[in-house]
Amino acid sequence: MSPTWKILSVFVMLICNYYFSFAQIEKKPIILTRADTLRGTDGPFRQLWDVLHYEITVEPDYATKTIEGKSTMKFYDNGARLMQIDLQKPMILDSVKDGETSYKFRREQNVYWLEYRDNNPDIMFKIKPGIRSLTFYFHGKPTEAVRPPWDGGWIWKKDKNGNPWMTVACQGLGASVWYPCKDIQSDKPDSGAILHIIAPDSLVAIGNGRLTKKQPAASGKTMHTWEVKNPINNYNIVPYIGKYVNFSEKYAGLEGSLDMNYWVLDYNLEKAKTHFTDAPKMMKAFEHWFGPYPFYEDGYKLVESPHLGMEHQSAVAYGNKYQNGYLGKDLSGTGWGNKWDFIIVHESGHEWFANNITTKDIADMWVHEGFTSYSETLFTECEF
């Protein structure tokens, strides 16, 4: 056999070995469904309109694990006709209005097709692009999280004193698991969001950004209004409802005084005051390496959560049980990982990589996680 044929034979053999090895690992072929395409693709009915702002009102009912509310979406309209509005089953879209005008829509799996305007060429010719808004009224029993934050949805728990403790973790699954939206990572609301949370008077409701108003709602309930000024990923807009108390500090940062707030369950207050000292150390290290904290207008918060953690923008979920490492474990195996709280450092690192710098496609989550994993090493070197 000639040398050329020997080389070709080896090449073919390697290709065959790779193919059969891969075939054994991937026994079941991945089948792309219509639902997958609608969820993940920036299709034609997500185009011609750009989300500018969300204003969401939500009222959860702990006893029935249901929610109801409305979402007003402001957007730049560049001639949209049929609009893809994402809202996952079993949530239900009740109506869509713009002032006194109501719009028709129909459901396809986890999508509602909104007939925003007629497809008449004469009408289309006269359309002037501009800012418009729609209000979506919704209700239902949202998917309940099984293993948050990885298998997400709404979280309905009780604290150790039996008080209701509620929140959401929906990265990957999508914000449309609980409210109507344009559920694609490439279209953040440019002007941020407002979140109105209606909760029992005995509990405290927390959202992204800053608390702007508290006012009575229905009998025995209060509406807490939180506003975030900066662009924000859909899945980062989140309510927390529980028996919370607050303490805070001012951090002298690269862009001036930064408000750092800590919301914890009432019986963990003293423990948190001692343990959360990693937060300003984290801020010092990351501002040095990555530049100013991206959301000075909205402040920085750690909010105790019934799940391990999540990078909710300006309201980072904390559930590491006041331990160093990852639930007390050193994932690095070096001994250094138990010298600081993994969730405070890692999830806060995402404020720079995921929340400020965001990939257009969720398939590129490695960018968010890769740089944030690197931030853990930088923090360790800075601190120790």
Molecular structure report:
The protein has helices at residues 3-25, 34-40, 121-126, 269-275, 278-290, 342-349, 365-383, and strands at 49-61, 66-77, 82-86, 92-98, 101-102, 105-108, 111-115, 130-140, 153-158, 164-169, 193-200, 204-206, 210-216, 221-228, 240-242, 244-253, 256-265, 300-304, 309-310, 316-318. The protein has 384 residues and is α+β, with helices and mostly antiparallel strands. The strands form 5 sheets. The chain has an 8-stranded mixed beta sheet with strand order 5-4-8-2-1-11-14-13, with no helix packed on it.
The mean pLDDT is 92
Q: Would you tell me the structural class of the helices and strands?
A: alpha+beta
How many angstroms does the end-to-end distance come to?
Answer: 62 Å
Q: What is the 3D form?
A: globular
Uncertain segments of ≥5 residues (pLDDT<50)? 10-16, 18-25
- Radius of gyration equals 24 Å
What is the share of helical residues? 10-25%
A few lines on this structure:
The protein is α+β, with helices and mostly antiparallel strands. The chain has 7 helices and 20 strands. It is globular, with a radius of gyration of 24 Å.
Q: Which terms would index this structure?
A:
384 residues; alpha+beta; 8-stranded mixed beta sheet; 7 helices; 20 strands
Task: Annotate the secondary structure layout.
Layout lengths: L2 H23 L8 H7 L8 E13 L4 E12 L4 E5 L5 E7 L2 E2 L2 E4 L2 E5 L5 H6 L3 E11 L12 E6 L5 E6 L23 E8 L3 E3 L3 E7 L4 E8 L11 E3 L1 E10 L2 E10 L3 H7 L2 H13 L9 E5 L4 E2 L5 E3 L23 H8 L15 H19 L1
Parallel strand pairs: 1-11, 17-18, 18-20
Antiparallel strand pairs: 1-2, 2-8, 3-7, 4-5, 4-8, 6-7, 9-10, 11-14, 12-15, 13-14, 16-17, 19-20
Helix pairs in contact: 5-6, 5-7, 6-7
